[in-house]
Amino acid sequence: MKLVVVSAGLSVPSSTRLLADRLAAATALRTPADVRVVELRDLAVDIAHNLTNGFPGRDLADALGAVTEADGLIVVTPVFSASYSGLFKSFFDVLDKDALAGKPVLVAATGGTARHSLVLEHALRPLFAHLRAVVVPTGVYAASEDWGAEGLPERIERAAGELAALMSGLAATRPAVKDPFAVVPFAEQLAALRPSG
How confident is the model over 145-157, as pLDDT tens digits? Predict the structure, then answer.
């Protein structure tokens, strides 16, 4: 199975990436999966170009393909202005609208204060529900004071267990996804538009 982690952390080192890595490790312990991390910081220019010209660069196309082909996703964003970062949202804006349909997704966020923890319910969960993903029940928010404190490791373990269970259960039933970059001859596209009968 393929587990893709999308991290929108901007700094190095990044608490967002740290949370992403802990969630990925906990999930991989429960279900065999090849883990790939997509660092959005490295794709920022390609994402901006894709938004303005409609074409992904090679690196962005590779990342979008990995997300599309994944059996499960872990998505982690820092909180800016009480919501996900603009870079995080822009990445999912350029993703094909059907790429996440039926795909298990674990949502997580980091922030400076616990007061922003509802970002999981008011921003991330609605975004991925709109994209028709299957969002695991437990989201993970880590404020600055959560690192090294009680509670965070347990939330990570619970969320990872839920994602692993969904990945294992849904992988066998998910239909194959068409290659979003495949070239379809015009005659075939036209034939598909004609009414049958």
Answer: 888 888 899 999 9
